[in-house]
């Protein structure tokens, strides 16, 4: 695993622990707090202790600003301070089933919970891989890719298998854009278009659920940025977030999110050999940038998938610290 990926993982886990510490500090005088002691908490604690004191202080400031904003959006966190509020970090493997929520805040007495996807300095939707062993159609939509698609990508990934056997570095592959990236992207685009033509409604609905990682649940995304800013972005797909109580309304209010209902186009980004742009109705635009995630060649490629165009009702709140 590249050093940058390792560092990113450490920082992400450390930030999760900073969020736990912050919630405990903010709420301990409001109501009883139960923090679930599991392996995810232990790992996050270890990673938190690996980063510098300056980085810890930054994370705590960021987490405090973000969590205070979420409390303003979710008054059930602090209302009626008699029952126990449970805070839990989820294991990483739940993401395989589409649940990207890292942190859960639960009040079992009223059968209520919210989830937060915690991000450190990035806002990517997904980092999905392509290879001859990975059927993106089946994983993303529950609809298998065709044999034609796998026959088209197989020669390219076989070439990567050969490079792997030679222990080649990606920087040594001089024609990787023309020989590797472009053929894979063209095959992906062709198969995506074919699947959409046959299964329009299913593809649109399941793609957005896959990319947003909701697994049927609303959640918040909380992103720590280096410029003294924490972004809170609610993905209120089903209208379960931002609920008031009998005595208190949210101080920060947002609407249920308008989802796309059809795909308009999937095309190459202008003057790019690595990126496809997906346009959907309701002002949703998503970029798929393909890249090698490792320094050594391996027989797979990774997408960096970003939301670059969004509907007006995709609310976000920047908390400055």
Number of helices: 7
Give the total of domains: 2
Q: Which stretches are low in confidence, meaning pLDDT under 50 for 5 or more residues running?
A: 1-6
The end-to-end distance, rounded to whole angstroms, is: 33 Å
Mean pLDDT: 92
Percent in strands = 15-25%
Main β-sheet description: 7 strands, mixed
What is the alpha-carbon Rg in Å? 21 Å
Order of helices and strands: HEHHEEEEHHHHEEEEEEE
Reading side by side through the largest sheet, how are the strands ordered?
Answer: 1-2-3-4-6-7-12
Helix content: 25-40%
Shape: globular
Structural class, from secondary structure content?
Answer: alpha+beta
Quantity of strands, as a count: 12
What is the topology?
Layout: H1 3-27, E1 33-35, H2 39-50, H3 53-73, E2 85-89, E3 103-107, E4 112-120, E5 129-130, H4 136-141, H5 147-165, H6 176-198, H7 200-212, E6 219-225, E7 229-235, E8 263-268, E9 275-280, E10 285-291, E11 301-309, E12 317-320
Parallel strand pairs: 1-2, 4-6
Antiparallel strand pairs: 2-3, 3-4, 5-11, 6-7, 7-12, 8-9, 9-10, 10-11
Helix pairs in contact: 1-2, 1-3, 5-6, 6-7
Short description:
With 321 residues, the protein is of the alpha+beta class.
Description:
Helix content is 37%, strand content 22%. By secondary structure, the protein is an alpha+beta fold. The chain folds into two domains: 172 residues, no CATH class; 131 residues, no CATH class. The strands form two sheets. The chain has a seven-stranded mixed sheet with strand order 1-2-3-4-6-7-12, with helices on one face. Helix 1 packs across helix 2. It is globular, with a radius of gyration of 21 Å. It starts with a helix and ends with a strand.
């Amino acid at each position: 695993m590249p050093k940058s990926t390792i560092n990113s993982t450490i920082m992400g886990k450390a930030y999760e622990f900073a969020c736990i510490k912050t919630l405990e500090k903010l709420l301990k005088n409001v109501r009883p707090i139960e923090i679930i002691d599991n392996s995810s908490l232990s790992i996050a604690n270890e990673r938190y202790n690996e980063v510098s004191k300056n980085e810890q202080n930054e994370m705590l400031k960021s987490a405090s600003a973000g969590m205070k904003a979420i409390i303003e959006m979710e008054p059930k966190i602090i209302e009626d301070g008699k029952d126990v509020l449970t805070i839990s970090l989820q294991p990483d493997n739940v993401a395989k089933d589409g649940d990207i929520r890292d942190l859960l805040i639960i009040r079992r007495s009223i059968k209520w919970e919210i989830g937060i996807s915690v991000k450190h300095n990035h806002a990517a939707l997904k980092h999905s891989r392509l290879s001859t062993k990975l059927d993106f159609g089946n994983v993303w939509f529950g609809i298998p890719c065709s044999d034609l698609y796998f026959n088209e990508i197989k020669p390219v990934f076989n070439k990567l298998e050969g490079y792997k056997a030679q222990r080649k570095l990606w920087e040594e592959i001089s024609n990787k854009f023309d020989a590797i990236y472009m053929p894979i992207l063209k095959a992906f685009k062709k198969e995506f278009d074919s699947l959409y033509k046959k299964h329009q409604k299913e593809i649109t609905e399941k793609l957005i659920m896959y990319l947003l990682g909701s697994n049927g649940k609303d959640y918040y995304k909380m992103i720590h940025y280096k410029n003294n800013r924490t972004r809170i972005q609610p993905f209120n797909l089903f209208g379960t977030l931002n609920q008031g109580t009998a005595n208190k309304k949210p101080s920060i209010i947002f609407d249920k999110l308008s989802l796309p209902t059809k795909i308009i186009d999937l095309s190459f980004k202008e003057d790019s050999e690595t990126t496809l742009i997906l346009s959907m109705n309701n002002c949703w635009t998503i970029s798929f940038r393909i890249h090698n995630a490792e320094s050594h060649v391996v027989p797979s490629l990774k997408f960096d998938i970003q939301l670059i165009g969004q509907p007006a009702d995709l609310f976000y709140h920047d908390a400055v610290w």
